[in-house]
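sry for the spam today, last one i promise. struct tokens for design, 322 residues
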């Protein structure tokens, strides 16, 4: 079979190479899946660079989120078990963690439903307890992680403020449902958000960026507001001033969604049922901006690594219909 593999750590576009390999052999409790679509996530880039919290043995195949097909023809969503990731014809996953792919979504959309939307749901509801009528601010609102949070915020009845970088992303954020969109490249984010919220700021701030975005969040969080720290796509991990959190009465909440797989897997199943219901009702729909041919997978991972993409890039195996 064909698989993209990383033999040495480095930039994805340089270290990912296409190999002809044997079918992976599932271990105990695992299952072999035919890959129908593989959604690219920022962790795939970190894996290539050797900067992720998990470091699979070299060589490995990246691809942490797929829509796959079981031997008996069931369409499922899975997070492959490395080193046999999803940027290949076949991947390996834990049988107990398979989730049914929603009928309302095609293969590429289903591949992009799991990690981003689960992270968004747990961040907004389980950690931040977002309420109807509250204001939610989403950094990188036109990106893969941010776009999911925007849709989930609207589904919860929140007023959503999206921060994006560039005029092309402004339009995307508006289409996603943002009530207010701020272009950080041409506007003063703090001033614009304060003006849009009557000086109050945001009740919940969803931050997958870190760095300067977090500094803005601390200035914009409302009384008894909650900042949800989801990741550090900027590459800069901020050091929050805890005296500031005390003086302004706000909470800083960390979210490592993968821990729920270990600590509360039943909650992941319940969340998936909710997301499937949302998809059926049209409340959420993954923003798949590119359906990438298998041959271009390395380039796609590199572009996600550089932060120049909008929405989701999903790699389709050869012969699949875009």
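last one done:
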């Amino acid at each position: 079979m064909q698989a993209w593999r990383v033999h040495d750590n480095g930039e994805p576009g340089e270290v990912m190479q296409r190999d002809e390999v044997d079918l992976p052999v599932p271990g105990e409790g695992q299952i072999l899946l035919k890959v129908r679509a593989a959604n690219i996530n920022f962790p795939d880039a970190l894996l290539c660079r050797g900067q992720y919290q998990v470091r699979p043995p070299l060589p490995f195949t990246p691809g942490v989120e797929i829509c796959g097909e079981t031997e008996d023809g069931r369409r499922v969503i899975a997070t492959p078990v490395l080193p046999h990731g999803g940027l290949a014809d076949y991947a390996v996953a834990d049988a107990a963690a398979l989730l049914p792919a929603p009928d309302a979504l095609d293969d590429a959309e289903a591949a992009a439903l799991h990690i981003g939307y689960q992270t968004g749901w747990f961040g907004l509801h389980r950690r931040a307890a977002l309420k109807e009528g509250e204001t939610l601010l989403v950094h990188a609102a036109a990106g893969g992680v941010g776009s999911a949070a925007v849709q989930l915020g609207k589904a919860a009845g929140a007023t959503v403020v999206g921060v994006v970088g560039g005029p092309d992303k402004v339009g995307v954020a508006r289409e996603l449902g943002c009530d207010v969109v701020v272009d950080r490249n041409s506007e003063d984010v703090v001033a614009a958000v304060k003006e849009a919220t009557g000086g109050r700021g945001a009740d919940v701030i969803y931050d997958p960026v870190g760095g300067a975005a977090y500094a803005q969040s601390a200035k914009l969080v409302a009384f008894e507001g909650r900042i949800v720290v989801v990741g550090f796509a900027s590459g800069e991990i901020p050091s929050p001033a805890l005296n500031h959190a005390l003086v302004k009465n706000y909470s800083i909440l960390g979210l490592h969604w993968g821990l729920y797989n270990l600590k509360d897997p039943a909650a992941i199943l319940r969340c998936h049922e909710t997301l499937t219901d949302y998809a059926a009702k049209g409340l959420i729909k993954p923003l798949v901006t590119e359906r990438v041919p298998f041959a271009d997978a390395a380039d796609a991972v590199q572009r996600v690594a550089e932060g120049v993409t909008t929405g989701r890039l999903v790699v389709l195996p050869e012969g699949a219909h875009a």
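The first helix runs from residue 12 to 15. ok im logging off now
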